[in-house]
Write a structure and sequence with these properties.
Strand order of the largest sheet: 4-5-7-6
Low-confidence stretches: 1-8
Number of helices: 7
Number of strands: 7
CATH architecture: Alpha-Beta Complex
CATH superfamily: H-NOX domain
Distance between the termini: 51 Å
CATH class: Alpha Beta
Helix content: 40-55%
Shape: globular
């Protein structure tokens, strides 16, 4: 099934590097190979650009064949797999801004979407994610970033549009909340 957003953005593209990161996050290389074969992809070149609909189809296959919970787990592993350079990161706010820059570098064309991050104070952040990624995947990604770059703080990632279906064309909105200790 072609995701609804893919039919609306025929000019949007994603880098092969990004697709390889998603595939690399899958636990089994055999599963990644099989999913690519089902999409008619024999090889992904990191330096090439692909229609963003390929990414949507890939996420649909992952959810349909492996279960929707795998999307969250896959997203959670991405900060370790996706290649965010640790030398540029100075805490969670920096990691979230780097994620937004990385999105801009690996997506192009009219309708490619964007990631917006806002520091709302007290160590909390708001993030609006692109409609081309399932919300469970993005929530897992944010949880992974918070765990890796949150320092000594603990964070909760709250999905603000719980009723939305990840296959629709709406963006995913999150609040990343620093938990305070009460003694």
């Amino acid at each position: 099934m072609l995701p609804s957003s893919a039919t609306l953005v025929p000019d949007a593209e994603v880098s092969g590097r990004n697709i390889l990161s998603v595939l690399g996050g899958l636990v089994s290389r055999n599963v990644a190979t099989r999913l690519c074969e089902e999409l008619g992809i024999t090889e992904v070149d990191a330096e090439e650009w692909y229609s963003i609909s390929v990414l949507g189809l890939l996420f649909n296959l992952i959810s349909d064949e492996l279960g929707p919970d795998v999307l969250f787990s896959l997203g959670y592993r991405m900060p370790s797999v996706g290649g965010v350079p640790p030398t540029r990161i100075r805490g969670l706010g920096s990691a979230l801004r780097q994620f937004a820059r990385q999105y801009a570098d690996t997506h192009r064309g009219r309708g490619a979407g964007r990631v917006m991050v806002e520091d709302v104070g007290d160590g909390d952040f708001m993030m609006a994610g692109s409609k081309h990624y399932p919300c469970p995947f993005l929530q897992g990604y944010l949880e992974g970033l918070a765990r890796r770059w949150g320092g000594t703080g603990r964070y909760s990632v709250v999905h603000l549009d719980e009723e939305s279906d990840y296959r629709d064309s709406s963006d995913c909105n999150f609040r990343i909340v620093r938990q305070t200790r009460v003694i």
